[in-house]
Amino acid sequence: MEKILKILSPKIKAWGLEKGFLKAQLYRQWDDLISNSLGEKFKKKSQPLKISRDTLIVSCLNPLWANEFFLQSQILLNFLEKKFPKLKIKKIKFVIR
Fold this sequence. Notes:
The structure is a single chain. Helices cover 54% and strands 20% of the residues. It is of the alpha+beta class. Strands 1-2-3 form a 3-stranded mixed beta sheet, covered by helices on one side. The longest helix has 13 residues, at 2-14. The model has no long low-confidence stretch (mean pLDDT 91).
């Protein structure tokens, strides 16, 4: 997979598809990103819905988990800003499924 990315990366940038590709990566890697930033207990409790302007909208399993994510949102935001700086995510909004 990494070899394919190295080959396609310049083309993705040239065609203006980089942001969409980064969003797809974030969505696909979500559970790993969550466990790496917040811990295993947060895995499988949420999923990203969309990025609207500078806000990542995340669906949570229930109100309890939405609150837990909200309390940890700055840690998650800092992690995502480092991992995906080109997406320019500045806020996270947690909603219930």
